[in-house]
Amino acid sequence: MIIVAITGASGIIYGLKVLEALKERKIDTALVITDPARIILEYELDLKIEDLKNKATCYYEASDLTSSINSGSFKFESMVIVPCTMKTLSAIATGYASNSITRAADVALKERRKLVLVPRETPLRSIHLENMLEISREGGIILPAMPGFYHRPENLDDMANFIAGKILDVLEIEHDLFLRWSGDEI
């Protein structure tokens, strides 16, 4: 089981692409999405929460601190927060587990499970960088939404698939979401 959390930053397409790729590979997912992310989902992609729920194995409300994903006894392999707001990143860095996303991330870190945060903010303040460093020191992986261009993306999907592919790489899941660099291109 992989927990996929979507917070209210721009770039919800990255979370959508990850969910689609995991579903295609028949990997169980638990989806959590914040209320601000629902608004951005509709604004950026013209989708409703039900469209994302259909791509996940199960769904949990971000506000439900009694859900199973909030416990260390809940078995999940890894967690991806994509996109990850600076508010969520800050809460995780400081141990402020006030919702299901930050609590499950806290569980991932304390249980030494893989935690991948995909911030989509620019420019970054010093405190953002310090929070990222703190999470990295605890074993979390910071994977900024910074698409490459060596694969010559032709559209937004190609760029989003690049980031989704990098996330799958970190999770050690095989994929063909982008063309890998071989050195022969030059």
Automatic annotation (TrEMBL):
Enzyme Commission code: 2.5.1.129
Reactions catalysed, as given in the entry: dimethylallyl phosphate + FMNH2 = prenylated FMNH2 + phosphate
InterPro entries given in the database record: Flavin_trans-like, Flavoprotein, UbiX-like
Positions annotated to bind FMN: 8-10, 34, 85-88, 120
Broadest EC class assigned to this enzyme: transferase
Transmembrane segments: none
Keyword list, A-Z: Flavoprotein, FMN, Prenyltransferase, Transferase
Residues involved in dimethylallyl phosphate binding: 150, 166
Residues spanning the signal sequence: none
All residue ranges annotated as the Flavoprotein domain in the record: 2-171
A molecular function (GO) term: flavin prenyltransferase activity
Superkingdom of origin: Archaea
Family indicated by similarity: Belongs to the UbiX/PAD1 family.
Protein purpose: Flavin prenyltransferase that catalyzes the synthesis of the prenylated FMN cofactor (prenyl-FMN) for 4-hydroxy-3-polyprenylbenzoic acid decarboxylase UbiD. The prenyltransferase is metal-independent and links a dimethylallyl moiety from dimethylallyl monophosphate (DMAP) to the flavin N5 and C6 atoms of FMN.
PANTHER family reported for this sequence: FLAVIN PRENYLTRANSFERASE (PTHR43374), FLAVIN PRENYLTRANSFERASE PAD1, MITOCHONDRIAL (PTHR43374:SF1)
Name of protein: Flavin prenyltransferase UbiX
Taxonomic source organism: Methanobacterium alkalithermotolerans
